[in-house]
Design brief:
The complex is a heterodimer of chains A (about 350) and B (about 800).
Chain A (H helix, E strand, L loop, with lengths): L3 H18 L3 H11 L5 H8 L5 H41 L17 H15 L3 E2 L5 E3 H4 L27 E3 L5 H9 L4 E10 L10 E11 L4 H16 L5 E8 L2 E10 L16 E10 L1 H7 L7 E8 H9 L12 H4 L5
Parallel strand pairs in A: 1-4
Antiparallel strand pairs in A: 2-3, 4-5, 5-9, 6-7, 7-8, 8-9
Chain B lengths: L1 E3 H7 L6 H10 L3 E7 L7 E11 L7 E6 L4 E6 L9 E6 L13 E3 L2 E3 L1 E3 L16 E2 L9 H4 L5 E6 L10 H12 L12 E5 H4 L1 E4 L7 E8 L8 H9 L7 H13 L3 E5 L7 E6 L4 E4 L5 E4 L4 E4 L4 E4 L3 E2 L12 E7 L2 H11 L4 H8 L6 H12 L6 E4 L2 E3 L7 E5 L1 H8 L5 H10 L4 E3 L5 E5 L9 H12 L18 H18 L3 E2 L5 E2 L1 H6 L1 H4 L19 E2 L4 H13 L5 E10 L4 H5 E10 L16 H15 L5 E4 L6 E11 L2 E9 L1 H6 L6 E6 L1 H4 L18 E10 L4 H10 L4 E10 L8 E10 L8 H19 L2 E3 L2
Parallel strand pairs in B: 12-23, 13-16, 28-31
Antiparallel strand pairs in B: 1-11, 2-11, 3-4, 3-6, 4-5, 6-9, 6-10, 7-8, 14-22, 14-23, 14-24, 15-22, 16-19, 17-18, 19-20, 20-21, 25-27, 26-27, 29-30, 31-32, 32-36, 33-34, 34-35, 35-36, 37-39, 37-40, 38-39
Classes of the chains: A alpha+beta (about 350), B alpha+beta (about 800).
The structure holds zinc ion (ZN).
Zinc ion binds next to loops of chain A.
Chain lengths: ~350, ~800
């Protein structure tokens, strides 16, 4: 049968076969153009049947539409198959090794002392304290005299001092950041609430002492500052630094510029109180000293001790950093060995 | 200071165990850092007797001993020399673990088997030094555990005394402290004296010329005494407390020093010229030989004890060799005096001589106790030595009342502590302290402070007593009233440092912290390279080592050493930064110091990169860090100009950083000579920023400009310029040519034969971005022409067309 309907059927079969064997998207488009595009073979047949009777035209037209629909759907199916194959092939070719390092500068690390100091400062800033600095080369007056540590007083033995050669003979490397108390109070009237971080120096060097180390000093003066407030403030601080569960205790002690004075101990973070080498079997670790500012210090700065009361506290940053990171030799902190420093997350 | 618990119990019949006493004292401010049971580690140490002693065949310094513990015999190799057959000794049998940590095992020593060890007092924790092994009294029963045999069911407390509590530097002082805590009562040992000799006045006279420095001088004299060792129990107590036993006379003075805290001195009365004592300053500089045999340089102000001819002691510090007690001494004058703390401290410091006596006098010795101590010494001595006690005493200043009255308001205590303190509660504390109290008007008390409490002179001192003896755990926890928050310039500076550190860490820099003191020798050695000016140096007068003699003039050397040491440790890429101060006499504000931020780069551009980052760092990496750091901190604009006076940087590869015309830093390649002097194998780039100046001004908030609505146009211009033309200047001028030019940048630079010696080819890209319209071709062309003209006329450029 060579009538038009038969031709349509043949073309449809041939088109389907051609689609089936197409390999690429352009093969596919070529097949489409040849068989069932606007100028394809099936369209051409429809042009030739214009002279036939209506019934016949309808029959052939229906057959052509059916064939075209079948081809279109085969085309779509094949097209998406080819595209999928091409995608898989491309992705396979362009695959990266996701385990190779990314391209960025390796992040540097913050020094554990600086990190700890930053946290201490931030904690007290949240508690309403503002930062004040002061010179590291300090006058004897600020480092000792005005802090109630006169010359030839046994309390000077508590701190081995570096003296500056010449230059008036009156300069030392500050042994604590407490001189900032005096400098601040000279410059301001109460209320004051200040945190004073910085490097300090003592003539001492072993596994737990470094000739240079860092301290954070804090103090507050107001009409109603009390030891109870001091206890509250430092309890809060220790919770923030060491976690809310760690027990702490306030123990009487002595500092020339505070009275009454206290030492704050936390439960040993190494042995949890059972006793170990770090806490010298006591189960407690000294982490800061504090007390009510001595009235004679107020005398040096012209505050009236009957009107104002104040408290002060100070802590060694290295000691806290060493406890937190399990570092046993303070000297490691000043060797700047990258194999050491890179152990601490930024 | 060491306190023997059984000794303490002689002064207070406390119900506290040694461990409880440790805790109670610590929580009252007298820290007891350790409490050691003396019998610990003695389980396998027994009393034994040496049967025979022979030489070790293979070692001259060792001997072989046969010893018995009464039931078995042992062969022991021993290194000591002080024993002989028949001596009773302490034998540590195998398995013993001694107080000093040594474990005793059966061992071959130079070929001979040793089945234990003969112990010294030091090894047994009974003294801090010992010359040989412990020899026990001959009658000590063999085989008995040593702890039982010599009474070691006792505890040794290590007490840390703060400088204000000199009154606690004795058994009595610590006992008083326990009394103040528990309310238990002190009992002083009774004195039993039989005065039988001549009157003391007939034996010696005492004058105190400088009574201001010696408010009280008490003395007792004895005659017909025989110098001998003191009894074992006394020697043991002295040894345990770290004092070497000498003889009965010296030991009794030391015993009283430990017991009641009264330093005493024993003079050989027959060697005191004129048998007279005076207490007065030296008056002139002189030499004087102290007991330890050292010749001391005495200054005129120093207080001395004199006999009829000259000085016999440095008062309160150390006696003189000329009058010390010798084996043939028969008559002794016991000095028990009080000297002013400041004078003793001054003398002790100037002489560089600290003794148990001076340590106590500096911190305050009870002037009310001198006579009791002298009486107690003689009374106790009479229990184990025979002598005659001279009738009467010498007691210059003994009539004085050394107590003080201090006013006290319970309400004031409450205001300091932060809780109500009732009068009753405060009185109870003073009663436990044995401070008599009287009313002194409403809300006021008058408290009598006994002379041993040197530290209590003011109301606040009494407040402290109330606070600590009612317990710090009783202080409530409250929170300070919140004042108005204040944000200081230093808060801002702290934030700048935080931000800078954050930024640098993001760039791969790790933070270093170096000592602020450096070796002046090293700076001096590289003087020219470092541009070091010795006259500007700040030096320590007492450096801790040769490497830490001078305050650093710059952070440079610390960081270079950091690079060198890391390279030595096989680290290939070093990026470090440090924030710290530089010091110099010429630095501002009278403080001689300035905060700096320094950074150093060494190695590859992108450490760890497997692609293109393996090129070595160069100047532009370092400059890039400095540039973007300033940008990050808002410290812009900054300008880089060739560095003029930084000898430690390569002159062709370094720049000063300017902001508002002021030099705020410098960056560049470290001079090759310096790098190789430190054995660093490659180029090092360094920057140092005067971070205070850089951060001085808070940048104002950025102001909004409308974002462009019209497309930008880019024009590329390639130009051959003389090599010396600073491209930065070109870019700056191009940017200024027309308001439509948004930016000018460089995207390629070429130098080479093709363009001729002394030239460089620079490719510029100019971004033109009008804010209100699309540019016409004619406008763009006109701008392009201006650029070309500028390059040609101003910079001698030749436009490349290709
Ligand atoms: Zn522990």
């Amino acid at each position: 049968m060579t009538d038009a309907a038969g031709r349509v059927q043949e073309l449809s079969d041939a088109g389907l076969r051609a689609l089936e064997s197409a390999r690429t998207e352009s093969d596919l488009l070529e097949v489409k153009g040849r068989y069932f595009g606007k100028k394809g073979a099936i369209s051409e047949i429809l042009k030739t049947v214009a002279s036939l009777p209506v019934e016949e035209k309808k029959r052939i037209g229906a057959a052509a539409n059916e064939a075209r629909a079948a081809l279109e759907s085969a085309f779509d199916a094949k097209l998406s198959r080819i595209r999928e194959q091409e995608r898989v092939a491309r992705e396979g070719k362009e695959r990266v090794d996701v385990t190779l390092p990314g391209r960025a500068p390796a992040a540097g690390r913050r020094h554990p002392v600086s990190r700890t100091m930053g946290e201490i400062i931030a904690t007290f800033q949240r508690l309403g304290f503002s930062v004040r600095g002061g010179p590291e080369i300090e006058k004897d007056y600020y480092n000792f005299e005005a802090l109630n540590i006169p010359k030839d007083h046994p309390a000077r033995d508590m701190q081995d001092t570096f003296y500056i050669d010449g230059m008036g003979g009156d300069l030392v490397l500050r042994t604590h950041t407490s001189p900032i108390q005096i400098r601040t109070m000279e410059a301001m009237r109460p209320p004051v609430r200040v945190i004073a971080p910085g490097a300090v120096y003592r003539c001492d060097s072993d596994v737990t002492h470094s000739p240079m180390f860092h301290q954070v000093e804090g103090f507050a003066v107001d009409r109603s500052a009390t030891m109870a407030d001091l206890k509250g403030l430092l309890t809060e601080f220790c919770r923030m630094m060491f976690g809310p569960e760690l027990p702490l205790r306030f123990r009487p002690s002595y500092f020339p510029f505070t009275e009454p004075s206290a030492e704050v101990d936390i439960r040993c973070v190494i042995c949890r109180g059972a006793g170990c080498r770090v806490c010298k079997t006591s189960g407690w670790l000294e982490i800061l000293g504090c007390g009510m500012i001595d009235p004679s210090v107020f005398g040096f700065v012209g505050y009236d001790p009957e009107t104002y009361t104040g408290f002060a506290f100070g802590m060694g940053v290295e000691r806290i950093a060493m406890l937190r990171h399990g570092i046993s030799d303070i000297r490691l902190l000043f060797e700047n060995d990258l194999r050491f420093l890179s152990q601490f997350q930024p | 200071m060491k306190i023997i618990y059984s000794w303490l119990k002689e002064f207070i019949g406390t119900g506290l165990s040694a461990a409880q006493a440790q805790d109670a004292l610590t929580m009252a401010g007298v820290e007891v850092s350790s409490c050691r049971f003396l019998g610990e580690g003695m389980e396998d140490v027994v009393v034994a007797k040496i049967l025979a002693q022979g030489r070790h065949p293979n070692a001259d310094k060792l001997s072989l001993c046969r010893v018995t513990d009464g039931s078995a015999e042992y062969g022991i190799v021993c290194g000591a020399k002080n024993m002989k057959p028949g001596d009773v000794v302490a034998l540590a049998r195998t398995g013993a673990k001694l107080p000093n940590g040594v474990e005793i095992r059966k061992a071959k020593i130079r070929g001979e088997v040793s089945e234990g060890m003969l112990c010294s007092e030091m090894e047994l924790g009974l003294s801090e030094e010992s010359a040989g092994i412990l020899i026990l009294p001959a009658e000590t029963p063999l085989g008995k555990p040593l702890a039982d045999a010599i009474g070691l069911s006792d505890w040794l407390l290590e007490v840390e005394i703060t400088p204000n509590r000199g009154d606690c530097l004795s058994v009595l002082g610590v006992a008083r402290e326990i009394a103040a805590i528990t309310g238990e009562k002190i009992r002083l040992p009774a004195i039993s004296l039989r005065e039988s000799g001549p009157t003391i006045a007939s034996l010696a006279t005492v004058t105190v010329t400088d009574w201001g420095l010696c408010p009280r001088y008490s003395a007792r004299a004895i005659t017909g005494v025989k110098i001998a060792p003191s009894p074992d129990w006394m020697q043991r107590r002295l040894s345990l407390c770290g004092i070497r036993p000498i003889n009965n006379i010296v030991d009794i003075t030391n015993y009283l020093l430990l017991e009641v805290g009264q330093p005493m001195h024993a003079f050989d009365l027959d060697r005191l010229a004129g048998r007279s004592i005076d207490v007065r300053r030296s008056g002139v500089p002189r030499k004087f030989v102290t007991l330890d045999g050292a010749e001391r340089d005495i200054l005129p102000e120093m207080l001395l004890i004199w006999d009829g001819e000259g000085p016999v002691a440095v008062a309160g510090v150390m006696g003189g060799q000329n009058t010390e007690v010798l084996p043939d001494t028969g008559r002794v004058l016991f000095e028990s005096a009080h000297f002013s703390p400041a004078s003793i401290r001054w003398t002790s410091r100037r002489l560089g001589l600290s003794s148990e006596s001076s340590y106590r006098f500096e911190r305050g010795v009870n002037p009310g106790m001198t006579m009791y101590a002298a009486d107690r010494a003689v009374s106790l001595l009479s229990r184990f030595a025979s002598f005659e006690t001279a009738r009467g005493t010498i007691d210059v200043g003994g009539e004085r009342d050394f107590s003080r009255t201090v006013g006290f308001r319970p309400a004031r205590a409450g205001r300091i502590i932060g809780r109500d303190c009732t009068e009753t509660e405060c009185k109870a504390v003073f009663s436990r302290l044995d401070f008599p109290v009287e009313g002194d008007g409403p809300g006021r008390l008058s408290v009598t402070v006994p002379p041993h409490r040197f530290d209590i002179e003011r109301e606040i001192d009494l407040v402290e007593e109330v606070a600590r003896l009612t317990g710090y755990d009783k202080i409530p926890v409250t929170y300070p009233e919140s004042g108005a928050p204040e944000f200081s310039p230093d808060d801002r500076f702290a934030k700048v440092l935080e931000d800078a550190s954050e930024f640098l860490r993001g760039q791969g820099f790790t933070q270093a912290i170096n000592f602020a003191f450096v070796s002046e020798k090293e700076w001096e050695r590289h003087k020219a390279l470092l541009g070091f000016d010795a006259s500007d140096a700040i030096r320590l007068s007492n450096p801790i080592s040769d490497d830490t003699t001078m305050m650093r003039p710059s952070l440079l050397m610390g960081m270079l050493h950091n690079v060198a040491s890391n390279v030595r440790r096989f680290i290939e890429d070093v990026r470090l930064f440090e924030v710290g101060k530089a010091f110099g006499k010429s630095l501002a504000d009278g403080h001689y110091e300035e905060p700096r931020l320094a950074f150093v780069l060494y190695g590859n551009r992108l450490p760890g990169d497997w692609g293109g980052g393996q090129a070595a760092v160069d100047f532009y990496d370092a400059k890039g860090v400095a540039e973007s750091l300033h940008g990050f901190l808002g410290a812009i604009p900054v300008h880089f100009v060739p560095a003029s006076s930084r000898p430690y940087l390569e002159s062709g590869k370094s720049a000063d950083i300017l902001k508002d015309g002021q030099t705020i830093g410098w960056v560049g390649a470290v001079r090759r000579e310096l790098v190789s002097a430190l054995d660093i194998p490659g180029a090092v780039f360094y920057g140092e920023i005067r971070i205070g100046a850089a951060a001085a001004v808070t940048p104002p908030p950025a102001q909004y400009r409308p974002v462009p609505k019209f497309p930008p146009v880019s024009r590329d211009v390639a130009c051959i310029l003389p090599a010396h033309v600073p491209v930065g200047d070109v870019l700056a001028m191009v940017s200024e040519l027309s308001p439509e030019i948004e930016s000018a940048s460089v995207f390629d630079i070429y130098m080479g034969e093709k363009i001729g010696e002394g030239n460089k080819s620079v490719a510029f890209r100019v971004k033109i971005q009008p804010s209100d319209r699309t540019l016409t071709d004619a406008e763009v062309h006109s701008i392009h022409t201006k650029i070309v003209k500028l390059l040609e006329n101003r910079f001698g450029g030749k436009i490349r067309t290709s």
